[in-house]
């Protein structure tokens, strides 16, 4: 890119420092967005940014008016040089895809690298709830064991698993559950029957999935299609012995409806890694139920996943600024306009592929 402007990438933080180490070896200017600094400081950095590694919703929740640093219409309208925005993980609800597409901005996520961590967490929820591990732990520590039969759990063997969203996480979870001989039902409008058969699962409607499943696992992204997907009707249709587990995003389910279902005995329990408000308030009633196991959006946070995501993040930005198509582009329809803007701002026209090893474009 000799003679071309140096690409400027603004980031709030990396999941692992290795991302910065990788990018420092590239011809990319790295600028950190300090959420504790003044708004003027933040906007001064973003107005000149060509790329933005978007802050997470949990991070911006730490400060008042923090959501202005999410990639919504207001931010997009103030950042004329912005070419691409990326989310830290598979979820991209911190980005308004439509607003970015209208502005000619490429939107990317980092699906894949953290799938193992989240799928293992989801399986852990299943085992914990079925075997009443946390319930037994609480009873033991509280000195109130009583009759051990009251802590009797169930097994995964031969049960029915319902997976909502057969992406990288859902697909890996299905593989993990194979040794338990579970029947696996999947609700995913973007998966066809041949793919389902190849993965050893059965495509069903959401209504059938909630009615038949012993464990309902939600692993889909938060979009306009999935927001509010689980409400009173879905919880009411579940078996009283069934468990609801989500590692997706809080707004995919109705928290008030879930609370009522748990208190009323409509379902047996829940494993929750996500909430409407994150971190959830201590007085959130879901956290005070014995049949709920909860974690603070940590399903994807492992040493291995953090590093893998960081490396994938850095490599995707390398591809972007080398003039290639991002490997995890979420709005491919933006490509023609994006290429024109990229050429105007950085002096070269992107191509479909880039050979990063040799530092050249492949036409």
From TrEMBL:
Identify the keywords attached in UniProt to this record, alphabetized.
Answer: Amino-acid biosynthesis, NAD, Oxidoreductase
| Domain (D-isomer specific 2-hydroxyacid dehydrogenase catalytic) ranges | 75-331
Q: Which domain of life is it from?
A: Bacteria
User: What SUPFAM superfamilies does the entry give?
Assistant: Formate/glycerate dehydrogenase catalytic domain-like (SSF52283), NAD(P)-binding Rossmann-fold domains (SSF51735)
Gene3D superfamilies assigned to the protein according to its UniProt record, in alphabetical order: NAD(P)-binding Rossmann-like Domain (3.40.50.720)
- The keyword Oxidoreductase is annotated on this UniProt entry: yes
- One Pfam family, short name please? 2-Hacid_dh
Could you state a single Gene Ontology molecular function term? NAD binding
| GO biological process per UniProt | amino acid biosynthetic process
Q: Where is the D-isomer specific 2-hydroxyacid dehydrogenase NAD-binding domain?
A: 123-299
InterPro entries registered for this protein in UniProt = D-2-hydroxyacid_DH (IPR050857), D-isomer_2_OHA_DH_cat_dom (IPR006139), D-isomer_DH_CS1 (IPR029752), D-isomer_DH_NAD-bd (IPR006140), NAD(P)-bd_dom_sf (IPR036291)
Which protein family is named in the record? Belongs to the D-isomer specific 2-hydroxyacid dehydrogenase family.
Query: In its UniProt entry, what is this protein called?
Result: Putative D-3-phosphoglycerate dehydrogenase [Bradyrhizobium oligotrophicum S58]
The organism of origin for this protein:
Mycolicibacterium parafortuitum
